Amino acid sequence: MPRFKSLALCAGLLGSLLSWDTGTAFAEAVNAAISDGVRSLPAEQRVALVIGNANYQIAPRLANPSNDARSVAQLLNTAGFDVTTATDLTRSDMLKAVEDFITRVADRGPNAVAMIYYAGHGVQLEGENYLLPIDARISKLSDLDSNSLRLVDLMGTLETISSRMRIVVLDACRNNPFPDVDDSGRGLAMVDAPAGSIVGYSTAPGMVAHDGDGNHSPYTSAFLNIARQPNLPIEQLFKRVRLEVNNATGGRQTPWESSSLTNDFYFFGDTAVAATRAPDRGPVVEMASNLPSRSVRQAYDYVLSEGSPEHYEEFIQLYPSDPLSDRVRVLLGNWRQSYAWHKAVLTNTSVGYRSFRDRFPDSPYARTALRLQAQPRSVPLMHFNRLSKPGSHLGFSNGHRAPALASSAKGMNASASMNGHRTGRFTNTSSRMNAHAHANHMQGKSRFHDRGPRRMGGGMHSHSGHRFAANHSRSSFAHSRHSFGGGRSFGGGGSFGGGGFRR
Fold first, then answer.
1. How far apart are CA 257 and CA 192, in angstroms?
2. How far apart (Å, rounded) are the C-alpha atoms in residues 318 and 330?
3. What is the DSSP letter of 174?
4. Tens-digit pLDDT profile for residues 216-263
5. Radius of gyration of the chain from Cα atoms?
């Protein structure tokens, strides 16, 4: 990287020569040197874990997660990832798969790109998100911890490993699999991505995603279609996925994402170049500066792709009677409620929970807020249990001892029967990087009412000062370096909270 920076500096110093006729040769030489510098950067190491849980033993079975997982694994393998695919996992299987994946990421070094894709059931409780194995048995709230995988444990552990980027894609909120248990609302709870991470969710916080009528869910279908476009920045990819899923479901499902990326990423194309660039957070829908002069549908697509409450409010003000405003009102109302709940759980005080209930008395979170008002959480939301195999340099901090994931040689299928549970299916494959695709991405350059560019998910910040922390139990914590509250969430351009929008 220092070599590339020095080359870029030379390019800047010699830029003035371009005004001379004799300067063309210098410019061409410098550009060639920069290209050589990019090509000489350490090779990007891509590693992925793909999980699809469909055949649940107690919860309702799902039609598509297995198909979704296999197709996503094929896509990632083509994109140069070393992929482990695992379907229909028990909790023991899931822990082993994750522990093995974390070890593989650590082995790849600081230039690794780590990706996790999960399709299956997921629930939330008290602002926490849980991914459910096929043997999950949940009869009461306290069963979740011992019958699932906490998302914060997964994200927190990944953040402790030095890597270039972490990508998590969750098609995990298809319905409430345990309706007799008060899980504090539908879908998953709002969270922020740790630094250097992006987390994509198949639907908005507190909303339900669809399993789909075809071979894939609407979300995974859109992801598979759009991710193949060469030289498409990853934040632009998720904006386009949001548009496609919203249109395909008639507005019933609107994906979102939380991003704290510091550099860009392409699944296909000039991947070495992407690593040297800042994330592209420009709009994906072309708009003139005067929004009312455009069609309502074009304006809707624009505000939907940007995804911020600020844009939602302005659309409603401009088109109050249009049927599309009804969709936007739902998104805006859901955003306000979900963020207020997220803030209350972060604050974790009786006053905060009471304030939430006063503001949203009919919320699905109101019953939980009443319970927590009487007795706030004993463990703050952002503290996590470290997940890793025993004997590794990362440690295994929640007291469990789990053997390594049984996996096959590259490109071959394997089955692993673990701890007496039903067999989970695993595949481990790898391929070379596809670095020869041509550029074919769209980037909108206009502004929304001349207010300046909006950045994707422009900063739903937590102002509570909470950070990821972990130790040998969740009753003892050591602060980590990065904040888990600074992500740009929901694909929008502003931060909502504290009585107004922040930019």
1. 9
2. 16
3. S
4. 999 999 999 999 999 999 999 999 999 999 999 999 999 999 999 999
5. 23
Strand 82-87 relative to strand 112-119: parallel, antiparallel, unpaired?
unpaired
- Chain-centroid distance, C-alpha 68: 17
* pTM confidence score: 0.74
DSSP state of 184: S
Q: What is the mean pLDDT of the chain?
A: 74
Residue by residue, what is the 3-state secondary structure of 36-88? HHHHCCCCCEEEEEEEECCCCCCCCCCCCHHHHHHHHHHHHHHCCCEEEEEEC
Sign of CA dihedral 60, 63, 67, 69: negative
In whole angstroms, give the CA distance from residue 359 to residue 498: 13
Residue with the larger pLDDT of the pair 291 and 61: 61
What single string gives the DSSP state of each residue in 239-296? HHHHHHHHHHTTTS---EEEE--SS---SSS-HHHHTTS------SS---S-GGGS-H
Torsion on CA atoms 496, 497, 501, 502, rounded to nearest 10: -90
Enter the tokens of residue 158.
């990944």
Give the span between the Cα atoms of 289 and 450, in whole angstroms: 6
Q: pLDDT tier at 398 (50, 70, 90 boundaries)?
A: very low
3-state SS class at 491: coil
